[in-house]
Design goal:
Distance between the termini: 16 Å
Largest sheet: none
Structural class: mainly alpha
Number of strands: 0
Oligomer: single chain
Number of domains: 1
Number of helices: 7
Helix content: over 70%
């Protein structure tokens, strides 16, 4: 049964809003650990899903569109600047970059969505803006991916806290 007791607002509306937005900021920056921390703090799974989904949605919208604007701006600067264009250097290929490009080419957007929980909301959104901005509905897919991860992580954290056998 759904417990509609809002634990966040037990200390008043202002403290509740501060708590809510603190958890939202935490879910933007450290999405993978936020559900476990909220379960440990005694929040209900539906509260956790609401908070992490809100944080992920705000984070995806902020960082995807900021990243897209930054990458477009930088491409325009590079194409218009004689100083940069006259000294065209080949990009340095490091082993890490090589592995990332292989991963991107092999798994594409689906791979990013599946691993997004591991690399955080800002990084996933910026990578999507950089490499997948030509595809339709990328932000929607990112938001749905983080919603799915919020449900999965909340359920797993709740099961660990309450015992796996029950």
């Amino acid at each position: 049964m759904l417990n509609l007791d809002l634990k966040m607002f037990d200390s008043g509306i202002f403290a509740g809003l501060v708590s809510f937005f603190s958890w939202v900021a935490m879910s933007i920056l450290k999405f993978i650990i936020t559900p476990s921390l909220m379960i440990a703090a005694g929040y209900e799974p539906w509260e956790i899903i609401l908070v992490t989904f809100t944080g992920a949605t705000l984070g995806v919208m902020l960082f995807y569109h900021t990243g897209k604007a930054m990458f477009t701006w930088w491409a325009n600067i590079k194409s218009k600047s004689k100083l940069i264009s006259s000294k065209t250097k080949k990009p340095v290929i490091t082993p890490g970059r090589r592995k990332f490009i292989q991963f991107k080419n092999q798994f594409g957007l689906i791979g990013l969505l599946l691993t997004s929980v591991l690399v955080s909301v800002p990084i996933s959104s910026m990578l999507a803006a950089k490499y997948f901005n030509a595809q339709k509905n990328v932000t929607l897919y990112l938001i749905l991916s983080f919603f799915t991860w919020a449900v999965v992580l909340s359920f797993l954290s709740w099961r660990v806290k309450n015992g796996l056998a029950t």
